[in-house]
Every structure is written in C-alpha cells, then in structure tokens.
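Cross-check.
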Amino acid sequence: MRRIYALATAALFTLTACDNATEPDPLSPRIDSLTTSGSVDSETALGAGGQSKVTLCHLRGNGAWNLVEVAEAAVDAHRDHGDTEPPCTPTLLEPIDGQLIPQNNPATQCPAHAYRGQGMRFLFDWTDSLSPVEIAGYELYAHRVGATYPIESRFVTESEFEKISCSFVIDRNLLDWEWKVRARDIYGRFGPWSEMGDFGFEPCRLANGQACSAPQD
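Predicted model, tokenized:
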C-alpha cells in the first residue's frame, strides 16, 4: 500500500484508497448486465421502458457496501432500506472496539525523554470507498468525548493515516476517544460519515515505573 509521509512539529503523519464495482439492483426482479468498472454504459443506464437508472450504495447483510443500479422510480424505496448516494461509507478497521494504543513506544523513533518517554504511534485504517467516479480522498475526524479540540481533523488522499506523536496522554484522559471518516469524490461530493470507532490509550510509564509527566522547565 503506497504511503505518503509528512512531518509536523511534534508529530509525524502518514497517509493511503478506491475500488469500484457495480452490481444489479437487489430489490429488483430484473437483472441488468452491468459494467464491472463501477460506471454504467449507454445501454445499462436505462431500465425497462427506457427509464433512467441511478447508482446507489447498498449495505449487504455482512456489513459490506456495494454499488447497485436501480430505476429512478425505486430510489426512495432503496433509501428506506438504508441505501445512500455515492460515495459509499467506509468501514472502520482500526482502532475500534476499545483498542488501547501503547505509549512510551520506541517504534516512534522519537528521542527518549526523561519525563515524557518516547511518544505513541498508531494507525487509523478503513476500507476504500466505492463510487462510480474516482475518490479524491477522505475526511478524518478524531477526538476525546467532551474535548474542545480534536486530536485529528484533516483531509487525506489515502484510506489510512498513521500518527506518530512524541507527546503522551495523561492518565485521566486515557479513555473515551472516538473517530470517524467519510469519502469525497473528485466532484467534491461527500458521502455519509462512518459510525464512530472507539479507542483509548495505555498508561504512559517510564522504565522505572513512574508515570510520564511534563514538568515545567
């Protein structure tokens, strides 16, 4: 998976996206022949009687999204079943389900600090969005519940984002973190936000067992 690296003051960030496939309308008894590229040719763009067709994101029973072509008159019925307009909602991969991020992690390659340790390194990862047109990227938002400012709020061009921070999270703020993403296509259209993924941090402890701290110089 191709990665792009960017350096910030106290953190190092990595950025990764999009695969299209279109399937017939699962609510329609008529199966049309569709292109496999995610776009619709001049014949399959029309249904029975020359009716226009619309591409929607359909949520399968296994939780995965796929693209379907439906008659324009059937769009409302599909929306009632939870279908949405592209780009489709990404599925969060990690961190989820309360995953705890290690702190004072040498893998950050941050300089070892006598009080703060060596920071943290973790990956926000999600599935590629589906769309009949190219995906431009994703909006990522992560914060602690009740916090004034997010830990991340940015647009990335790939379907993952790695954060390396040389700081630490204090013990009273270890839990209640959450994040979400949504896709944007090349025409600037955003898809729905994903569900929130919850995560937290392990306590930051130095080699001597003391809690990490940031004493005033």
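The chain has one helix and 13 strands. Residues 105 and 155 are 26 Å apart (CA to CA). Passed to J.P. for a second look.
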